[in-house]
Input
Amino acid sequence: MRHHRPLIVALVTLTLVVAACGRGEGELEVLDARSRMSPMLTGVGAVYLDVGNDSEVDDQLLGATVDPSVAARVELHETFDVEAEDQGMGEDAEEADPMGEHDAMDDDGEMGHDAMAPSPEGFAMMGMREIEALDIPAGETVSLVPGGYHLMLLELADDLAPGETFELTLTFASAGEVTVNVEVREDV
Amino acid sequence: MPNRPPWLVITVVSIAAAVAVSALLLPRGSELPGIVRDPAPTVLGLIFDDVWEREQAVPVDLVPGPGGVTAAYFGYLSCPDMCPLTMGDLRRARQLLGDELADRTTVAFVTLDPARDGPEELQRYLGLFFDRGVLALTAPDETSLEAAVERLGVRYELQEPDPDDGRYEVAHSAITYVIDDRGVVVRELPFGTTPEEYATVLRSVLDDRQG
Output
């Protein structure tokens, strides 16, 4: 059998390469899926990630699932300025950019200090709500970041401790299901 | 009472906006991040119950010991996004300070959701982030909480419960109040401040108040 070994190795390698190329050009790419350390007792955690849509078709992120050993369910959420909403500045939950988070990004995509500017009443009051779907337009990258959109893990089965990883399966309207590895980090 | 002339309103609003914008833009340079209020509020006389590693809650204020600094944050434990992120950033900031300065730094978490966040919950939650130098605080009564909230300009509002599972969120301003050993809020840092920036601000207060 020994002389077959290089062939087997080559076949295995080829299989891996093909698998790795499965989501290549012209498709959705999910990058940098990460979660922040969270205590189990409150039952909630959040996952952040970037979705790049290299295809020519607009897509939507509809939701996600994780193994029950991680959390019972996952919801798509956005953090928003409660009063901007009250003033009718953002009537459509899915179209609105109530935090102005697109403006608030620094060049490196992180939140800036100006994200929560003090209004005459003080700093903005941020709320959180579930959304049905998140648009991922063709040719664009949408980032789920702290203070903006996140996938909320509910009924955590255990603490999310730094260094751990878990699988998350995202459901897109067009691209279907995409499974990624989420890394629990001390900083996200 | 006569109507104010429109130009006056416009001028006042413009000046206010310019001040607000410059307060936010200044930190981009060599200045420290966050804002400083004038006059700066103090935390003197604001009393909370500390449940950190205690059999029974002990009344405390937010004033650090001599030469120390307190970073105080108002939030709720069921918050998935801003609260744990801020606690994690402060944990990292304290690591960046090194042992000597970290020992003089206290992180205080005040719950805005005392109905759900009991002593045991506060203790376990904060225990994931910190092993020492932390105050797990709840207001002894609603009046005390309102006094603190009003003094510091904390804003919060319990949201409508989810009709399906009764879960509710607490909308709130996500600000870290940096308090020196005189009890003065010397700087307010919004959510999104980096661990490095928290460390820089904490270090500057510690340096200022030394000796």
Remarks:
- Residues 11-25, 89-115 of chain A have pLDDT under 50 and may be disordered.
- The interface with chain B takes residues 36-39, 41-46, 77, 79, 82, 104, 110-118, 120-129, 146-147, 150, 152-153, 159, 186-188 of chain A (CB under 8 Å).
